[in-house]
Amino acid sequence: MVEVQNLHIRYKEQKDFALHDINLNVEKGELFGLIGPDGAGKTSLFRILATLLLPTSGRASVMGLDVVKDIYAIRRKLGYMPGRFSLYQDLSVEENLNFFATLFETTVEENYDLVKDIYIQLEPFKKRKAGQLSGGMKQKLALCCALIHKPELLLLDEPTTGVDTVSRKEFWDMLGKLKKTGLTILVSTPYMDEASRCDRVALIQNGKILSVDTPKGIIDSFPYPLFQIKSKEMAKLHKDMIESKLLHSAHIFGEWNHLVFNDGNTMEQLIDYLSLKGHTNIVWKEIAAGIEDCFIERMRDL
Amino acid sequence: MKQFFAFIKKEFLHVIRDSKTLLMLFGLPIVQIALFGFALSNEVKEVNLVVCNLSNETKATELIQKFDASGNFKVVQVIHDPNALDQWFKNGNIKMCLVIPAQFEKNAVRERKIDVQLIADSSDPNLATTLVNYGNQIVFDFQMKWFGQSTLPGINPEVHMMYNPSLKGTTNFVPGVISLIMMLICVLMTSVSIVKEKELGTMEVLLVSPFHPFFIIIAKAIPYFVLSLFNLSIIVFLSINLLDMPMEGSILLLFAESGLLILVCLSLGLLISNTTNSQQAAMLISLLGMLIPTLIFTGFLFPIENMPKPLQIISNIMPSKWYYIIVKDIMIKGLGIKYFWKETLILMGMAIFLLALSLKKFKIRL
């Protein structure tokens, strides 16, 4: 469905490639996640796939069509939701949806079954201006508008950025339903926890793809035992642990520190060291790695 | 086609729902017409005049009344001491003084010509010249009525002001203001409306639709074309009914020629929008790039014939200059197309060139 080979892009007036040697393959019917922090190159890649940017070198095709040559054929069959809210804020929910339906040569009635589940939630606000909707509602409306012409491939650029946790969960539930209709979905997100909702994910950083695998595959490939630890003085704890020289890595995750030991070092040694430094109420536990741990670990390899 | 109409409908909704745009679209022309029509005019009306009457004969009083009744002057005081004049000018309340010498009537009857003095404050030379001309005209008329034409020595040209006998400024300003407003509104509106889509990110979605970019441009231009014609109707209506602007020629022709200018302006707006990425930049370019050159090079503030050659050449690229000539020909002189087909052709050429250029420059990608 999406094939990308040795894709590079470099923006004018810039020395470094914004995308460097990207290779990617998305199968038909897949829910594929592109995961990486801000500025990793996610939007650039999406724009190339949506025929909005020309790659500097390399090739990419979507739905079997070349993104440079067949732009009008692609634009007919593609659903694209940009990272920024890109509907008309001064038009109402209804007007936006009707406008985009007409623009894509269809009507809301014709493809209503496709957007029904989402539109039902928007229905009570259909006379409201799009600019006055909440963040979650805006994204639902944008998704409706991107879906209204029954695309074969859906490109969603950071659809959950700036949206509250509940709405994020709802949004991913919707994507799950859409996937069941056979739609291929390529979605990007900076939130690592959303990776588990995808069939496969690609980790991207500094314009390079670090790895492509199923979420489970990525987690399973984490090479070390991982521990979490906390104590009364979190800020001092992190600093002391780094100074102990016992650790391969330590990162703060909310109220916990995630850590990996250097070869041969054990938790007993660390606890002794920390007690000596005056830490009390130390709690620790061995845990399974998450996507974020894997991502951070891979970043170290760069 | 359905896409096209949906797009135009959407564009109208944008305009109607944005009070700022509405204000700019309809407030600006009305304010400008009122400003240029009433406030900013170079006509001379009721200028304060002091008369130093040293004669006290009947004919002298008659002449003073003549000045007062002309409408150009208002006699604030009649004095008899010429030494006081200096103080009047110093106070700055008067712009001109009429001195009637002693035994004015007696001398006039003897020499069959009258002899008076006009003293003008020429710190504003243009005004002073105008005032002296008005004064001369009054004295000349007075003399003719008194002695009859045949008795006057030398050449007496009979002056006839064609097309605008009362020398009203509005006839000059209104066509200028029309072209100014058309230039400003059309260029500004179109450039801002496209750049707005870029700035808000909606252009991204529009581009990814099957709607061809070519039609995006056309669909953008049509609502503003219609609005501009509507705008023009308001201006023409106001200037005819409120400012007593003559309308000698065909209204239809005026609208057709205006349509041409609007087309030029829309293309210019499209061109600007293709080269900028923020509404502010588009607004600055349209305002600075249009307002000042239009003011200077259209010809309604400063006559182009008086400019140095290089500036005269530059003025040729201003569409408003040609439009100004056409509007004056239609409204004031009542002429038909055969008198300004050249100007029309130039405007057409500009429209085609700019439209082609902006279509070529329109990016089908981001």
From TrEMBL, chain A:
Transmembrane segments: none
Molecular-function GO terms, alphabetical: ATP binding; ATP hydrolysis activity
Keyword ATP-binding attached: yes
Pfam families: ABC_tran
Keyword Signal: no
UniProt KW keywords: ATP-binding, Nucleotide-binding
CDD domains hit by this protein: ABC_DR_subfamily_A
Ranges of residues in domain ABC transporter: 2-231
Descriptive protein name: ABC transporter ATP-binding protein
Organism of origin: Sandaracinomonas limnophila
Automatic annotation (TrEMBL), chain B:
A cellular component term, taken from the record's GO annotations: plasma membrane
Entry keyword Membrane: yes
GO molecular function: ABC-type transporter activity
Keywords annotated in UniProt: Cell membrane, Membrane, Transmembrane, Transmembrane helix, Transport
Subcellular location: Cell membrane
Transmembrane segments: 21-40, 173-195, 215-240, 252-272, 284-304, 339-359
Protein name, UniProt field: ABC transporter permease
